[in-house]
Amino acid sequence: MTDVLDSTIDIAALPAPTTEAGWLERARLVRRVLESDAAERDRAGATPYAEVALLKDSGLVTVLGPPEHGGAGLEWPAAYRIVREVAAGDGSIGQLLGYHYLWFWAARLVGTPEQIAAVEEQATVNRWFFGGAVNPRDADVVITDEGDSIVYRGRKSFSTGSKVSDVTVLEGVVENTDTHVFAIVPSDQPALQFHDDWDNIGQRLTESGSVTIDGVRVPWTDAAGFRDKQFTPRVYNTLNVPVIQLVFVNFYLGIARGALDTAAEYTRTVTRPWLHGGHERAVDEPYVLDTYGELWSRLWAAEALADAVAVESLTIHRDPDGVTQQARGEHEVRVAAAKAQATDVALDVTARIFEVVGARGTTSSLALDRFWRNVRTHSLHDPVAYKRREVGAFTLTGELPPPTWYS
């Protein structure tokens, strides 16, 4: 790809931030670089090598990593806000970063203490970028037990991160059993064949095409959470879904914020007032003021809910061995509420900005439609009606959503 990112900012030369506020400011800087040519890169749809290099150079890929290995040691509320900020500049890159954070954290969800320490040290020191081939709607990848090793074979329709990742998280089932096994494997190997078949209307730079897994060999010692081929389950193992759903929430809201900021600048500088309205500037039009007021109010409310739910998750993440089914279920209900709200608000915001930019704002060079296309594409990941159902069932009957691949 032609590197069309803003090269006037040498992020790699900047010292690493030392505070959470500093890391959020670093994310805003990355946002400014990404948004400078987001429309052009969206049209090109090229593999985002430069964009992922930017995430690495900025240090954002290691914010959840241990400080003793060069990470920032931040917690999930900050990571979610970083995803939101980056997504405001480019929704695809916000999604890639959010998925990376989940898979970086996967060792803590299911790994042994030794595996967690090893993965986090290597991932932080080497600034690994994670991808994942764990689409539950497809047939399970089959794992063959070959003594000291297991071998993965199968195909997944989606593998977000694919060619831009350093490592890929695989999940499969040992043949003739119901034993699921996660493992982190190098992405650059012949046994992983990433296909260039991601051709969707939105999130075009997420490298989410299909993958063929043909003989990926992993030693049993790297099977996440297993000792002597046995896995001891705990409630915290099931937190992958609430974590990734909050990632969705935050890059949806980030895309919506990017849409509103972009539209507002256009309204201030380009949009003309209606010739029969009696106003000299578009920013004085009552309907323009009302629309922006409504959309910003709704976005701020959705962001506040997302932030509150993220803070609530800290109790679970700080005591992974102590989390109960009840606490996990109640947290998932709150995540579901945030997901439903973020989806509705982001779709509405990204569609209605056209009402306040005017007809000229539909020019393809601006590509303001990319914001809606991005939210619309990913928000079909799982039906939002089921998220509202989780909230309704809990509030009326106390029913907790059972841990599944989507709840």
Automatic annotation (TrEMBL):
One Pfam family linked to the record: Acyl-CoA_dh_2
Oxidoreductase found in the keyword field: yes
Domain Acyl-CoA dehydrogenase C-terminal, residue spans: 247-381
Keywords of the record: Oxidoreductase
SUPFAM superfamilies: Acyl-CoA dehydrogenase C-terminal domain-like (SSF47203), Acyl-CoA dehydrogenase NM domain-like (SSF56645)
Domain Acyl-CoA dehydrogenase/oxidase N-terminal intervals: 28-116
Keyword rRNA-binding: no
Entry protein name: Acyl-CoA dehydrogenase family protein
Originating species: Actinomycetospora atypica
